[in-house]
Amino acid sequence: MTSPYDLTSAEQTLLSTVTDLAEGFAATAAAYDDRAELPLDHLEALTAAGVEQAILPADVGGNGVSYQAFGELIRILAQADASVATIFLMHAGAGIALAQLTAPTLGSYYADEFRRGARFANALSEPASGNTFLQPQQPAIPADGGFTLDGAKRFVSGSEIAEHLLVNALVDGVPAFFGLEPDETVETIPIWDTLGLRATRSQLLAFHSTLLRSDHRGRGLLPTDFAAIPAGLPAVSLGIADAALAALVAHARGRVIQGQPLTHQQWVQYEVADVESRLEAAKAYFRLALFHADSGLPRTIGSLSRAKLLANRVAVDVARLGVRIGGASGYLRTSPIQRHLRDAEAGQLMAYSTEVLSGQVGAEILGL
Ligand SMILES: Cc1cc2nc3c(=O)[nH]c(=O)nc-3n(C[C@H](O)[C@H](O)[C@H](O)COP(=O)(O)OP(=O)(O)OC[C@H]3O[C@@H](n4cnc5c(N)ncnc54)[C@H](O)[C@@H]3O)c2cc1C
Questions:
Q1: What digits encode the pLDDT tens for the residues 100-139?
Q2: Which residue stretches, if any, does this entry annotate as coiled coil (predicted)?
Q3: What separation in Å is there between the alpha carbon of 285 and the centre of ligand 1?
Q4: Which of 140, 151, 170, 228 stands 20 to 30 A from 337 (CA)?
Q5: What are the b/e assignments for 340-362, b being 16+ CB within 10 Å?
Q6: Distance from the CA of 275 to the center of ligand 1, in angstroms?
């Protein structure tokens, strides 16, 4: 029987290229995390391998990989280095959105920039908007050539290397999207000293009468636009969960207590079976949600919301079990176990958070 999740041969080649690159990313993940340094060389390696061209949708001149392939690509990256996966996902989300939203007015400008390896970032979350990053509260005021923005956007992953920002603001009371090349009016406030996803350097940006150009304004989002970030965020958590599971298995096999490896303790077997089967279930549901997205089914966002909720939670559960199995040696900075827990916790915070998603899904089920 044909699987509904089949990938084309070009997609399989892309994923095998990314898998090869990811081996190198995994080897440096701990060091970049420790230094909270942007892994720019890894991002450049992805561009050199043609990943941007592959994931750019066909309607803006790219190869237009399926959601299925895109989700797997992000999961592979996250398993190797969750910060690389997160920055790349935010870059992809902003680059693809700007290419699609401005195509009617600016033609191929942003698609060309994305393809050549210009770095993109999402400056959407506002200090006062909480998780509702698509509903900005900060107004853009009419000015010569466009609108000026005074205010702040926070947790902008990869902002320090971004050549283009996707910014939203209220124009006449309605949310509007702009492409912005950061200039001296955009100030980076270095707040990013975090527990997890440290190498994303998701800084606070302050805007001082920054011009949002009318000719860089995009249209509103359409259901047919490629939803990179909703499709990629569950994959970030699933990749972290895979890495956390591998780390705990390696530890349990290597740690010998009173002559027996930890793998022989029954509680370890039971708990591993529990988290691994829930992880596999979350992956299966995620693939179903991506299949819905590839099929253009109307439940796409609802499915991806549930997939994020499941993936965020199972990643934390696997990583917490890793800490128990790891004991004090897994708690050392030299062990990957502690990093996976720190990264897993961040998955729940990124919008939409597990609380917001639970509210949306619960309200839908209850018919509110
Ligand atoms: C690693 C990382 C990378 C990020 N990268 C980017 C990026 O590149 N670009 C960008 O624009 N943003 C980014 N963000 C921001 C992120 O997506 C959230 O929008 C932002 O974190 C929300 O603010 P907050 O985390 O301070 O939580 P708060 O909004 O202060 O939330 C606090 C608590 O309230 C809950 N809550 C908030 N709003 C609601 C609501 N409406 N209903 C119910 N509960 C609610 C939350 O779930 C949480 O439990 C990133 C965040 C992280 C952690």
A1: 999 999 999 999 999 999 999 999 999 988 788 899 999 9
A2: none
A3: 24
A4: 228
A5: bbbbbbbbbebbbbbeebeebee
A6: 26
